[in-house]
Specification:
Elements: H1 20-30, H2 35-42, H3 46-61, H4 69-78, H5 85-88, H6 101-111, H7 116-123, H8 127-141, H9 146-156, H10 159-167
Helix pairs in contact: 1-2, 2-3, 4-9, 6-8, 6-9, 6-10, 7-8
């Protein structure tokens, strides 16, 4: 039986505070499950999934350092609350072997929670190019979506490494 979504995991050093239900939902997303599958696994109404994800996003948007679902997933991996093990099986030993320099920068900035306009301003490229690079990243890593790409990246790179890659111009 699932514990109440009101119960909280102790805050970590990065203050990533998530209920057990939130962690289950995020892990399901990392594993590539849809809302129906996540709902079935957690024994909750699939309609609740989108509401919970929206709440998680909104609660983090008020904080000063990073925001967005990608950053939350990365922090969950860095804190050991989430795992990308189911996704990483087919990845090359080094992400640099399959991703170009610009793709690495885009993925690092996505992992930090930057939005499209922030990324294109930083890199000096048109906004439509971010979508093209995201597609290229997903195809190169052979993952289902950007969530899985970010999860793989965060599982292979520390926060410091991600910041360093994101800052390279």
């Amino acid at each position: 039986m699932m514990t109440s979504s009101r119960e909280r995991v102790q805050p970590t050093s990065r203050q990533l505070e998530l209920s057990p239900t939130d962690i289950g939902i995020l892990q399901g997303l990392v594993d590539g499950l849809n809302n129906q599958e996540i709902g079935k696994d957690l024994e909750i109404d699939p309609g609740v999934i989108g509401v919970r994800v929206g709440h998680i996003r909104y609660s983090r948007m008020r904080e000063s350092e990073g925001n967005g679902l990608f950053r939350i997933i990365a922090e969950g991996i860095w804190e050991g609350l989430l795992s990308a093990d189911k996704v990483k099986g087919s990845l090359p030993s080094k992400l640099e072997d399959v991703l170009g320099d610009l793709q690495m920068k885009v993925l690092a900035q996505m992992t930090l929670g930057w939005n499209r306009s922030q990324i294109c301003q930083r890199l000096g490229i048109p906004e439509y190019m971010i979508g093209i690079h995201r597609t290229g990243i997903i195809e190169a890593l052979e993952v289902k979506d950007s969530i899985q790409a970010v999860a793989c990246f965060a599982s292979e790179k520390s926060l410091e490494e991600v910041k360093e890659i994101a800052g390279r111009i």
